[in-house]
Amino acid sequence: MAAIFQGVGAAAALSSSPSNSFDSKKLLFSPRRSFSVKKGASVVVVRSDGNVNLDLNPRGRRAQQLIANAVATKADSSATSSSSKPGHELLLFEALREGLEEEMERDPSVCVMGEDVGHYGGSYKVTKGLATKFGDLRVLDTPIAENSFTGMGIGAAMTGLRPVVEGMNMGFLLLAFNQISNNCGMLHYTSGGQFTIPIVIRGPGGVGRQLGAEHSQRLESYFQSIPGIQMVACSTPYNAKGLMKAAIRSENPVILFEHVLLYNLKERIPDEDYICNLEEAEMVRPGEHVTILTYSRMRYHVMQAAKTLVNKGYDPEVIDIRSLKPFDLYTIGNSVKKTHRVLIVEECMRTGGIGASLTAAINENFLDYLDAPIMCLSSQDVPTPYAGTLEEWTVVQPAQIVTAVEQLCH
Question: Which parts of the sequence belong to the Transketolase-like pyrimidine-binding domain (predicted)?
């Protein structure tokens, strides 16, 4: 298989740039900035100031209810502030594609493989247009065989390439768990350092809008226990692009978790080249009373709850941990020393989840600074129901965050 990829670097055909079109009829997203979703004959537009413009038929009323429960906006100075900033606006899936495209232009050893990533453009259009621009050797459509093409990507990385492997859904990568665990994470060590594995494994996960149990998997904790692998979770277009570029340049294998409900989240990002630190958390909102640690989609539920908490007189500090392995204990520790209270909000399962590992790390390193036990809000330990009302019950909602903070601070 390695011989197939030896000529990949010479296969870059610079022709046309990818299109930005995207069919979102079957998806409903929970953005921080702004988006437009069309479902049936109803259109919902949410801007950064929190105003909602609706053109609803009867079928659209449920969409209104879901958005009201899901959207959380960061406190911006004005709704027009982003339009006056330098840079360009992108949806999150477009930011991922831009980062990937820039790295493929910069380094001919970067290649992409996965199901439907070629001329179809990927199931969420992250790779749309790349096959036309870079050719079929650098953007390789694979059969529905996750174990095989993930292993092929690991072998390609051993020979000097930098593959980006897309799992159409993170749940499908369970079929490649042996390759990721026994080969991807370990070959650098078991070879005595003779091989590096600069591979990126990425794809959508998380609870969507009635996608059913098998397509609503949160597998962060599954992969967290594998030695030799880094894990990051993007939550904004800015860090999606920056983490994608940093992961591709890393000499370590990196798993990049994307959330299916954040792909249509819009943000203005810089025109100039930038990358994000793979091991650094992001301070979303400075505060004094309690440290709220979160990541991915739950960042927006936390920020929605933060508005209510501020109105009630609380001053929460919100940190997007971003790096799921290793944790940024420097940023987290400084926050704990300031607030002395910690709430963890995650979409991962409670038993053995990211929150459990984070709780253990904080207790081991910063126990003396805590004035109250750490609280952790996680998804319920049940398969995600298909019914929309039941699905919402399994995932942490903003009202639960408000209640937890009130309990912690009293």
Answer: 90-265
Catalytic residue among 103, 115, 146, 346: 146
Digit-coded pLDDT (tens) for 181-227: 999 999 999 999 999 999 999 999 988 888 888 888 888 989 999 99
Helix residue ranges, H only, 183-236: 187-190, 220-224
215 is catalytic: yes
What is the pTM (predicted TM-score) of this model? 0.79
- 162 to 47, 165, 380: CA distances (angstroms): 38, 10, 37
| Contact by Cβ (8 Å): 55, 287 | no
The single residue of 94, 115, 188, 215 carrying the catalytic annotation is 215
pLDDT for 291-345, tens place per residue?
A: 999 999 999 999 999 999 999 999 999 999 999 999 999 999 999 999 999 999 9
CA angle, 255 then 258 then 259, to 5°: 145
